[in-house]
């Protein structure tokens, strides 16, 4: 994906935790600003609202809230920017977006949570005969 | 093909007809022998069409093989070939009579093994034809076997015509479950589809034949299948749901009913694993009402010799007098009948029969229709007694249809009196046999699924039918909750509240015990249909959700549980003879009722869920059973 590489400049490392934190907010703002165009290019109006997408983005960020090393935060931010770029450049397809951000990672297997506490046998039984 | 060259002999000699003499010099691979064989091959092919590419026998054709091995590499034949009108042998056997090479194997099979004089040779010389003399159909329950023995493509399978080539199919060696014989079969499948069923040699059980029901029931495996768990909605229609939901619903109902209102019924096609799981599960829920259909109100499950074929199927050949009580082996177990007919043919054994008028393919003496004839024999008042008395190895075969009778205890004790009186059971010969009807029956009796069906069904609020379609549900309370676990949408589905789809015998690994007490396994040939699961797994899963988990998670674990209850069921391909004799039985005080014996099987071609779903079997019942 050469064009992505061009589009994402690698910024210099954050000097301090405060700077890293600031960059995260910048990134979040960028992502939120991109939401209307994402909604449009992927035709998401009938499956999701901008607010839900925003929540999904913040959820992704919060997943890493325990990270305290600015270098790691920089790396995660870079991954996030790359992902955002891919999305806004339409390098993905509609079902990718729906699968990852609308339905969520556990989307189609959400039922599994109900099996908590049941035996291995039962879990296997529900998935297939073999 | 057997021509060889013998030194100092002017012509090649047929090795099969020439005794070998001392000092004879035989050459098998000389140009003269080869040329002679080519000549024979040319004669064989003179009137044989060269249509192998459109012939169903192609690839497994003896003539094709022979001509590849011995034939010439070019033809010299320029004349017209003869052609023969095709005969109609019924819905099972397709004929292309031009291909016939007049080997008369089919004629011999029909008269010697099937015991029907339907096929014969018409005309002589180049006008010779195989046919049923007056345009009859071939009405034998073994007619499908002529397909296997015809060396060429003259007799082929009608349902299988142009469906597949033999080299594109995968063969799985398994056993048949449509009757209690457990014939050894090979299931040929292509991808997920069973294409045909052919016999496998087992001298002790089916020799090399199988019945038409076994051979042609396979299209029933593709029809009427249940492939999703379903729940009946308030509007009376079934709705497909996930396994999780279906099992949750069943478990919830299960936990609301009283333990003694729970009843489990295993069907006639159930394997031992699933019956074990069902029994353990129902017992864990606090009920002892587990039964297997066809075993009657009070099955004689305590002593194995009371429900098995004690002489063994192959052992029937030693018998010289048969007494059939309330059984029509021809429709109940065609392979056992073939054994009897073989014995009768070979040794002129006498056969006496008590039961409703029935069709036999050997000479029988119809002694009577009801138990009174049996009592007469027991008291020595019947002319058949003299025959029984003079017999060396007499055999009594009682049908499992008798289990359903109210007076079965009395009938069986009368049979035992007869047996004792005429030396049918002695230390070196146990000729007292029971011929079972269903594949599941013997294992069910071994495992102790012996509740009384009428009472259990009457009091049931929760009825678990594991493939049981033939239980009488008339007395079932209207508010009872019925779970049907099975592979076909058959009779019982009309009453079911929840359907749990399971796999058929061609799709699962299961243990079956046949009527002579031989334990055999089925091997999965094709994947399960849709979202179906193996029977025992469903019961196991349900038990966990219902809060009484069964302690086994794998087939091996189920089998080790089975070995605690009935160790003979884990010794595969072995016949476990029963050791205790019937002597230890308590005396029976019941009176025999005068009601005549009934036929246990009305329609040979349709006896269970698979055969009832089969179109071929329906055609057979329509054309071949016409009176
Ligand atoms: S077995 Fe086949 S080839 Fe032989 S006589 Fe019968 S039809 Fe003809
Ligand atoms: S292939 Fe030999 S008869 Fe058809």
UniProtKB/TrEMBL annotation, chain A:
Its main location: mitochondrion. It comes from Triticum urartu. Belongs to the complex I LYR family. InterPro entries: Complex1_LYR_NDUFA6_LYRM6, NADH_Ub_cplx-1_asu_su-6. GO terms for cellular component: mitochondrial inner membrane; respiratory chain complex I. Keywords: Electron transport, Membrane, Mitochondrion, Mitochondrion inner membrane, Respiratory chain, Transport. This is NADH dehydrogenase [ubiquinone] 1 alpha subcomplex subunit 6. One of its GO terms (biological process) is response to oxidative stress. It is found in: Mitochondrion inner membrane. Signal peptide: none annotated. The keyword ATP-binding does not apply. It is a peripheral membrane protein.
From TrEMBL, chain B:
The gene is LOC125530827. Its cofactor is [4Fe-4S] cluster; [2Fe-2S] cluster. InterPro entries: Mopterin_OxRdtase, Mopterin_OxRdtase_4Fe-4S_dom, NADH_UbQ_OxRdtase_75kDa_su_CS, NADH_UbQ_OxRdtase_ferredoxin, NADH_UbQ_OxRdtase_Gsu, NADH_UbQ_OxRdtase_Gsu_4Fe4S-bd, NDUFS1-like_C, Prok_molybdopt-oxidoreductase. GO terms for molecular function: 4 iron, 4 sulfur cluster binding; metal ion binding; NADH dehydrogenase (ubiquinone) activity; oxidoreductase activity, acting on NAD(P)H. SMART domains: NADH-G_4Fe-4S_3. The keyword Iron-sulfur applies. Residues 32-71 form the 4Fe-4S His(Cys)3-ligated-type domain. The keyword Cytoplasm does not apply. CDD domains: MopB_Res-Cmplx1_Nad11. This is NADH dehydrogenase [ubiquinone] iron-sulfur protein 1, mitochondrial. Residues 169-225 form the 4Fe-4S Mo/W bis-MGD-type domain. Keywords: 4Fe-4S, Iron, Iron-sulfur, Metal-binding, NAD, Translocase. One of its GO terms (biological process) is ATP synthesis coupled electron transport. Pfam families: Fer4_NDSU1 (PF22151), Fer4_Nqo3 (PF22117), Molybdopterin (PF00384), NADH-G_4Fe-4S_3 (PF10588), NADH_dhqG_C (PF09326). One of its GO terms (cellular component) is membrane.
């Amino acid at each position: 994906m050469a064009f992505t590489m061009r589009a994402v400049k690698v910024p210099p490392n954050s000097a301090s935790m405060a700077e890293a934190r600031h960059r995260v907010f910048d990134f979040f703002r960028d992502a939120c600003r991109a939401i209307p165009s994402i909604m449009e290019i992927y035709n998401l109006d009938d499956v999701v609202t901008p607010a839900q997408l925003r929540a999904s983005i913040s959820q992704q960020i919060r997943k890493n809230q325990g990270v305290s090393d600015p270098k790691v935060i920089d790396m995660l931010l870079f991954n996030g920017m790359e992902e955002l770029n891919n999305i806004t450049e339409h390098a993905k397809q509609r079902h990718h977006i729906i699968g990852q951000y609308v339905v969520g990672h556990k989307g189609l297997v959400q039922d599994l949570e109900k099996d908590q506490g049941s035996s291995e046998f039962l879990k296997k039984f529900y998935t297939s005969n073999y | 093909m057997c021509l060889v060259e013998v030194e100092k002999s002017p012509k090649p000699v047929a090795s099969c007809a020439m005794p070998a003499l001392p000092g004879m010099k035989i050459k098998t691979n000389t140009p003269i022998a080869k040329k002679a064989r080519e000549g024979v091959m040319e004669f064989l092919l003179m009137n044989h069409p060269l249509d192998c590419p459109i012939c169903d026998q192609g690839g497994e054709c003896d003539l094709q093989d022979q001509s590849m091995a011995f034939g010439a590499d070019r033809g010299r034949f320029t004349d017209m070939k003869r052609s023969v009108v095709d005969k109609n042998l019924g819905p099972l056997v397709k004929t292309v009579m031009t291909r016939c090479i007049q080997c008369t194997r089919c004629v011999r099979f029909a008269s010697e093994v099937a015991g029907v004089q339907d096929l014969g040779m018409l005309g002589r010389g180049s006008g010779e034809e195989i046919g049923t003399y007056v345009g009859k159909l071939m009405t034998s329950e073994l007619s499908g076997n002529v397909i296997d023995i015809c060396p060429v493509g003259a007799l082929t399978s009608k349902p299988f015509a142009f469906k597949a080539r033999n080299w594109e199919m995968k063969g799985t060696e398994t056993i048949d479950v449509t009757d209690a014989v457990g014939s050894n079969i090979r299931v040929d499948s292509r991808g997920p589809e069973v294409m045909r069923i052919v016999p496998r040699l087992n001298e002790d059980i089916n020799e090399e034949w199988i019945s038409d029901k076994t051979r042609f029931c396979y299209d029933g495996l593709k029809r009427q299948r249940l492939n999703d768990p379903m729940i009946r909605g308030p509007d009376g229609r079934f709705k497909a749901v996930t396994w999780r939901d279906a099992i949750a619903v069943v478990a919830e109902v299960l936990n609301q009913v009283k333990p003694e209102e729970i009843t489990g019924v295993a069907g006639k096609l159930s394997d031992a694993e699933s019956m074990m799981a069902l029994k353990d599960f129902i017992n864990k829920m606090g009920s002892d009402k587990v039964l297997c259909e066809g075993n009657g109100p009070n099955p004689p499950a305590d002593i194995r010799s009371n429900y098995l074929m004690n002489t063994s199927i192959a052992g029937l050949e030693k018998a010289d007098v048969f007494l059939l009580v309330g059984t029509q082996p021809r429709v109940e177990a065609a392979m056992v009948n073939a054994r009897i007919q073989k014995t009768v043919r070979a040794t002129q054994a006498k056969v006496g029969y008590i039961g409703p008028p029935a069709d036999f393919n050997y000479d029988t003496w119809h002694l009577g229709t009801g138990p009174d004839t049996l009592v007469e024999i027991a008291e020595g008042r019947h002319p058949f007694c003299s025959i029984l008395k003079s017999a060396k190895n007499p055999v009594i075969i009682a049908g499992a249809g008798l289990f359903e009778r109210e007076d079965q205890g009395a009938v069986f004790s009368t049979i035992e009196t007869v047996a004792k009186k005429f030396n049918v059971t002695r230390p070196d010969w146990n000729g007292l046999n029971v011929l079972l009807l269903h594949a599941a029956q013997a294992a069910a009796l071994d495992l102790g699924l012996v509740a009384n069906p009428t009472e259990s069904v009457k009091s049931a609020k929760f009825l678990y039918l594991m493939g049981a379609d033939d239980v009488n549900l008339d007395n079932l309370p209207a508010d009872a909750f019925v779970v049907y676990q099975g592979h076909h949408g058959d009779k019982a589905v009309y009453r079911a509240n929840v359907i749990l789809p399971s796999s058929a015998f061609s799709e699962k690994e299961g243990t079956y015990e046949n009527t002579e007490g031989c334990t055999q396994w089925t091997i999965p040939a094709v994947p399960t249909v849709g979202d179906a699961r193996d029977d025992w797994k469903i019961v196991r899963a349900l038990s966990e959700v219902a809060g009484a988990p069964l302690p086994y998670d794998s087939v091996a674990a189920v089998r080790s549980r089975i070995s605690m209850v009935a160790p003979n069921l884990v010794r595969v391909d072995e016949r476990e003879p029963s050791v205790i004799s019937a002597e230890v039985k308590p005396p029976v005080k019941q009176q025999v009722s005068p009601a005549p014996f009934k036929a246990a099987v009305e329609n040979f071609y349709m006896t269970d869920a698979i055969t009832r779903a089969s179109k071929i079997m329906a055609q057979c019942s329509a054309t071949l059973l016409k009176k």
